[in-house]
Structure formats: structure tokens, C-alpha cells
Specification:
Layout: H1 11-19, H2 22-25, H3 61-67, H4 73-77, H5 89-95, H6 117-131, H7 135-140, H8 155-164, H9 177-182, H10 213-220, H11 225-230, H12 237-244, H13 250-259, H14 263-275, H15 285-293, H16 304-310, H17 317-327, H18 329-332, H19 340-350, H20 354-364, H21 373-392, H22 399-414, E1 421-423, E2 435-437, H23 440-446, E3 455-460, H24 466-476, E4 482-486, H25 489-498, E5 503-507, H26 508-522, H27 533-537, H28 547-562, E6 576-578, E7 584-586, H29 589-607, H30 621-630, E8 640-643, H31 651-658, E9 663-668, H32 683-686, E10 691-695, H33 703-717, E11 741-745, H34 748-758, E12 767-769, H35 773-776, H36 778-788, H37 791-796, H38 804-807, H39 814-825, H40 828-840, H41 844-854, E13 864-868, H42 869-872, E14 877-882, H43 909-919, E15 922-927, H44 930-937, E16 944-948, H45 949-952, E17 975-979, E18 982-983, E19 989-990, E20 993-995, H46 997-1004, H47 1014-1018, H48 1031-1039
Parallel strand pairs: 3-9, 3-10, 4-5, 4-8, 8-9, 11-13, 11-14, 12-13, 14-15
Antiparallel strand pairs: 1-2, 6-7, 16-17, 17-20, 18-19
Helix pairs in contact: 3-8, 13-14, 13-21, 15-19, 17-19, 20-22, 21-22, 26-30, 28-29, 28-30, 33-43, 34-40, 36-40
Length: 1040
Amino acid sequence: MRRFKRKHLTAVDCQHLARSHLAVTQPFGQRWTNRDPNHGLYPRPRTKRGTRGRGCPGYNPEFFLAGQQRCTNDMAKSSSVGQDSSKDSEDEMIFAAEGHCALPQGGDGAAWPRSSGKRSRSFEDERNQATGTSQWDGVSRKTPRHHLSLSCTRPREGRQEAEDGVSWFSAQPGESSQEVEDIGPDPVPDSYYGLLGTSPCQEPQSHICSLPSEVLRHIFAFLPMEDLYWNLSLVCHFWREIISDPLFIPWKKLYHQYLMNEEQAVSKVDGILSSYGIEKESDLCVLNLIRYTATTKCSPSVDPGQALWSLRDHLLLPEAEACVRQHLPDLYAAPAGVNVWALVAAIVLLSSSVNDIQQLLFCLRRPSSTVTMPDITETLYCIAVLLYAMREKGINISNRIHYNIFYCLYLQENSCAQATEVKEEPSVWPGKKTTIQLTHEQQLILSHKMEPLQVVKIMAFAGTGKTSTLVKYAEKWSESRFLYVTFNKSIAKQAELVFPSNVICKTFHSMAYGHIGRKYQLKKKLNLFKLTPFMVNSVLAEGKGGFIRAKLVCKTLENFFASADDELTIDHVPIWCKNSQGQRVMVEQSEKLNGVLEASRLWDNMRKLGECKEEAYHMTHDGYLKLWQLSKPLLASFDAIFVDEAQDCTPAIMNIVLSQPCGKIFVGDPHQQIYTFRGAVNALFTVPHTHVFYLTQSFRFGVEIAYVGATILDVCKRVRKKTLVGGNHQSGIRGDTKGQVALLSRTNANVFDEAVRVTEGEVPARIHLIGGIKSFGLDRIIDIWTLLQPEEERKRRNLVIKDRFIRRWVHKEGFSGFKRYVTAAEDKELEAKIAVVEKYNIRIPELVERIERCHIEDLDFAEYILGTVHKAKGLEFDTVHVLDDFVKVPCARHNLAQLPHFRVESFSEDEWNLLYVAVTRARKRLIMTRSLENILTLAGEYFLQAELTSNVLKTGVVRCCVGQCSNAIPMDTVLTMRKLPITYSNRKENKGGYLCHSCAEQRIGPLAFLTASPEQVRAMDRTVENIVLPRHEALLFLVF
């Protein structure tokens, strides 16, 4: 018998081989014969030429045995497997999940034909006789599913199957069976694996489902809770059982359940607090928290000695050891050694920043440490839920500790998400884009497919990439058409540059103008400015005039324009107004009836397209928007509408959007609602939704600025269910100033004051006014100053008033009449300009000229950027100075008892929103006011840092830095708190210093007992600081 037999090809064989590459790349797909189809393709040991080295890979016949499968054309047509229920239970267990097996397809989609069909059938019959199965019994059921199967036939099962039937492989001629048996098995296929095609069972099987449950539990512990319950628990029953296991991340589950106020979780946490003495009445509640944390159960593999050694480089380890050794000696000198979890808890409680927690994680994750990440995160979640519960129970403890833990865990759990680079949300200033990465929260939004009539809300904090998310959403669902609508024209123009072509970007007023407003423009009956009481007063009925009534009519029309109502009724008349003495009084019923009558008459005349001379009858921008809303517009060409800055929607705009048949996405920050005076209502709270998503991670700033913003929401607005977090980059809030500075104010008057200050000196600074110098209204300031001058002076100096409205008062009542009108009309803009003129008086021309000279249009070259928060909304700056004209908290928390009339709730939400917007404009550095620091003290943050008392007293006696305190730092205490220095926006500096333990206890409550025992603290003199408020602030608090 010849050793190498020549293969003869028929004409049909040659044609098929010439038409396709599968004959070479997928030999397993060729027709079957009664001999090995891969004959000659396997490496064979050539024993006659010498034996191979022991390390040489050998031929593994069992590997190929496990991979062989018999395929027929009938199998390619089969649409199901495992249909024969008469098979034995073992086969059912092994092949129950198997799928289709199809032959490789030719170029025309048909299965490759087989030549020598008779010989193939005889081989199949021979094979079936050997295995005792029919063609369908043995082939269709035992053919593994190609790409859908999660597992493949195990090698042992494959070998058993081959041994049960006729062997497909035998020793080649000239080779003995012993020679083949002597060849050691290969751990993997040969080095040419895959080059000659593979069968499904030869492909490496490394699916995540094949991992042990212990490994899966370890992986799942890294994921956010939302992903665990909303996504992974729905994959399969096995994963759901792992996630639902009570022993799987119990503290992480308990933390989130407590935040959701689940009754069982609240009861469990309350039981822990009461059982371990973590209560408001106990001075040792914080020490008891450490004691409870020390009982934390961890993995049996944890070596306490190695874990303690891994903490050796942590900056707070000496302080934590001193604290535990002094106050919890049983945990420090335990028979098994120092309790590591007690030290971990002490480090967490003494931490002053997120960096301290991140360093703790870094130390415990060293290769030398035996502590697993689930052990670490579970311990941190344990501390976090107890700290959160302590605040809920009224225990005086800083929210900064909980925030540090939450922030660190948030970054850890969300850093593993698949990142996609996108552009930061567009700014109205060209070129201000930064690269960001999609978070898991953004990925959830992108995965949601909009359906008709769906209402989706995206509740986003400042700088979280709201517009970027919409851009990526439009790119992903590119087959759909979207309408992006906003309120700001410049934002809409910038959006056109970043959105894909399937998105149309408009403002609400531009769409209304195209349908309604254009008609009034053509008739020259469009009022480019808002309706003023001065205009209305000129058309009021005789005997019913006056600026007070005219203001009432204007306000009635404004309320109607903002509403979703079809008719103007008495309900649109304001309930309160100011009388001629400036007092706030309730509007009488007769005045309401007169107000609605005059407003209706005015509205009827405004709607007419005929020409008229009276300015009061000209259509306003809000007027034609109202007419468009009443016309019931239909935007049927879009699949969904994006409403940006939804917190500033009026009911009229919401009526337009919600009446559309397509899907709606409302996106915005509910805490940036600062236009309620224009009739805006928060659509993110009032509109019912079908789906709601959240964006809580800001790409704009780091942890320090994020903490200030989160604390404003926490303390002033009671927002605790969702927490604002930032990135992992550095940011500062204690007065560091570098480079360009933005000075943000609440009022235009304060902006003018700052512009005067920074342009003083021999080398005046270059400034930029947000929105441009024209929009700031310097010309009107000059006109009001000119109106203030006597008539003779105006004539002598040839002073001319350019503003037409102000010029009218020259022949009426002059400056005094103009001022009375502004007060009666409650025109805030003109009130601010009058205040500027009265403050600087004769210096006005010089100061205005200087500001104009120092102003530059390109803000990139300005040293100072000045503006109000309303104009800065949507912008961001490297360094932000928050000026001192925002809502004020007069003193720190520990002194508020001296001001019983002060209440945070006394101020409107708009005031806190303005402060929140100002703070969140900063990217790198925030310069705070003293009032803003006082707000942080309401949450327990005093910028204190623990130090070893032995180090503090190295230079001698140290006294308390509080001005009216005479206590010295005692030597028998282990730790001492130091107040960190801070520079305020008014350029005053608090240099800080060491606090005695009595003053520390007044500020940080039971945390002070980590530094000294309650007996030592009580033995010290208690200092009560004298609070002296400015006269106007004291009167203000008495009023509220």
C-alpha cells in the first residue's frame, strides 16, 4: 500500500474549489467520506529520523476527536435540535442547550453539494451501526450550536463518544499504535491552530458564564447598584441568585435601601444605632461607631498583620493609632493584635478630603495586603450608612465624612464602565469645549429607545454633560429625526455646530416668529422690547390710570402669556402688589376686576394686524409665542423633541411640547431655575413622566467645588437622595488665585462696583463684561446721570439723553419723577442703575469712560470677567470669585443660637439656586465669601484637621486661635484640631490656627471626643463668641 495516496478531483470538485476560498480555510466544511477528511494535515512524529526532545509539542489525537462532527445537507435545513424525547437522560443533560448546525454556504447561499453520495451514506450507516443510533438520533441532537452556545462538549464526553463508535483516526501506515500512544497530549492545539479552519467545539470557550460563582461575586461587587438590579439581575437565573443572595454585598444593599427609606432597612439601621449606643445623647457615639466597625466580618484569608503593614504609609495612621490606643485600648491591645478595621474606621473619621480615603484604598490594595476589595468597600458602606443615619437622627456630625466615602466609592464603581470620548456640552463662547467620557448614567440614557408619547426626564446637575448626552443620543439613533429647542438664541446657534444632521436646532420664539410673529413684523406692529407700565399707562381708561394700576395690567398679561390657559381671566391678576408707599399689600377685588378688564382690552388690540401708533398695542415676543400656543401647532415631522433647560419652561411652552404625538425628552438642572420672576415653572418637577434618568457626575470641577455645590443643595434645599460629584482632578476652595478670574454677582450694581475697583490704579486691568458692554447698559447709566443734572448744566455742557424713554422724563417730572416711576413699576434693572448713579454721582462720566477703555471683546485676553449669575448661566471659568451680595448666613452654626430669628427656610429657592449656579461655574478654583463658609458649617464642615498633640506642643504652650478664648492646648490629650487658613472673596484672610478641645467640641460635636475624653473637654472653659451683625443685616433677620 502506497504511503501517500494521490487525491483525484472531478470536474465538479475543481469548479467548486475555484469559486470559493472555503475549501482551503474551512476544510471541515467539505463533503464527508469514509476516511479522515484531514488526512495529511496533521503533524506526525518521524520516529525513523530520531526522537523529539521532551519539550516538543506532540500530536494530540484526542483533541481532534473531540472536535469532529458529522454534518449533512439535511442538518443545514433543520431548524431545531433535540426534538427526539426518547434519548437517555445523560444526553438530555449534555445537549439540552445545543442549537443549529449548518453547513458552510456557498456564494449563492446554497449548501455545498456532496459528490460520491452513495459512499457517504454507507459511511453514515456504518457509523450509526457502531453507535447504535439512527441518522437523526445521532447527528442532529449531538451537533453543538455554532455561535449561540455558551458551552461546548467537554473533552471527556467527546472522548467517550469517540470510544463508543468507530475510531475516526488511526495510526498511519508505518507507525505502530504504541508510537502514537507514546506521544504526550498537547495542552493546546498546535501552533497553526485556526489557519485551517475550526469547528465550533475547537474554539476556545472563555465565556463569563463559565466562571465560578465566587469569581462572579467578586466582579459584581465592583458594579453600581443600579446596574446590578436593572441589568445584571435580568441576564439569567444564576446571576439573579448571586445578586439576591443576602450574603452578597449586604452593607452596600443596606446603604441604598436606607437611602430609599425602605422600612426594613431603616428598622435594621435604627436597631444597630440603639444597640451600640450610637445616639444623640451619648458623648461616645463616634467611638461606638468605631467599636461596631471593628466587628466587621471579612474574608478568612485576610491576615491582620499584613493588612496593618500595608497601612504603614498612610498619612493619618499615626493619628488613628493614637486615637484607638487612647480611647479603645481593648481593640488596640487585643490578643490577636491591633484590630485593623478599628484603625480603618478611625482613619475615615479623621479624614478631611477624598484623597485620604483614596490613599486608604491604595494602601489596602497593595499586593502585600490580603484584604480583598469587597472587604474594603463593604466596610466603607457600613461606615457610610451609619454616618448618614446619624445625621438623620440629629447627631452633630459633619457631612464631609460621608461625602468623602460616597465620592470615593462612586469613582471606583463607575471607573470600570466602558468609556466613550465625546465633547463637553457647548458653550456660547466659541472654542470652549473639553473632552469628556460617557458615564454609566449617560450609557443608560443612550440605551433607551424613544417611542411615541413617551415623556423622558433627564435630571442633571451642573456640568454633567447634558447637551453632550443629547448629541450622542442623536448620533446613536441616527435614523430618527429630532427637534432640539432651547430659550437662548446663542445656545441654539452653537448647538447647530455640534448636533448631527438629523437634529434641527431652534428656539421657541424663533418657531413662533416663523408662524405668527413675522406677520406683525411685516405690518410694523412688533414691539422689540417688553411691555412697560409707562406704555400701558398711556392707553388706560380715563380715571383708571397710574403706574400702580399699569403695573398690575402688565403683570396680568405676563401671567396670561406664560400660562397654558386659552382665555384671560381674573385668576391671572396678581394677588399682591406694592402701593404708592412701596408697601406690599393685597390686591382688592375691585382692582382685580378692573385689571382683568383693561388687560383683556389691551390683548384684543395687540392681536389686531392693523397699523397703530400706540406702543402698548404692539405685539410682544411673549405675545406671539402665546398666539402660537393657542393655534395648537403640530410638529409631526419629528420622532422626538429635546427640550434643553427644561427647568425654565413656562406652562405655555410645556403645553406646546406635551401636545405633540412624538416622544419628549426634558433635560435640565432643577436647581438652576432662576427665572421664576418671568413666570417659569420647573417642568422637571411638574410634568408627569414615563421614564426618568439622572446625571450626577460633573466633568467641570473636582471634589472640593463639587462638595460646596452638594452642600448647598443638602443644607439649603434638603436634597440628599442624589449627590453631586465631580471628577478626580484637583480643585481648591480656600483662596488660591491663579490666572484669569471671573467675578460673579447677583446684581448689576455690584458688577459696576467691581469693574470700578479692578480698573483703578496706575495699570488698570483688562476686563470683559459678560454679554458685552452694550448689553450691560453703560449708555443708560450716562443718560440717568444726565437726567439728574440741572437743566442749566445740561445746556451748558451740551449733554444729550440718547434713550428715548428716559428723555421723556425731561419734560415731565425730571429725575425724581423717573425714580418714583421705577419704584412703582418695580423695574429691577433701572433700580440698579439709579443706585449706581446716586452712589458715584459726579464720577459717573469718568468711571464709565474708564470701564469702556479697559473693556476687551475677547474674554481670553481679559484678566477679569465680570457679570451677573443670570448672564453667566451656562458658562464656566477656571477661577470664580463669588461676590458678597448673595443670600447670607450671618454666622457659623455653633453661634446661630444667638440669632433665633434666622431660618434657612425663610429664603426662597431662587436665592439658593442663584448661589448654587454661581458656585458651579468654577472649574479649578472657587473663592468663597464668609457667608458661603457659614453655609458649610451648617453641614458641620469647619475645615479642621487632626494633628498629634505631641507634635503641636513641640515648640511650647499653644493657645486656642479663637479670639475670645483663653484656653491652652493640654498636654494629656492625644490629638488637636487645627483650623486651615482661608482667604475670602473680599480679600480678607482667616489665618486659622489650633483650637482648644472645648471650642472644637462646639464646632464638630462628638468627633471632638476622638481627640480628648469627655471629661477633659468638660473641664475646659467654654467660650461664647460675641456676634456683631451689620445694622441692615440685623434688621433683615428681624423682618424674617
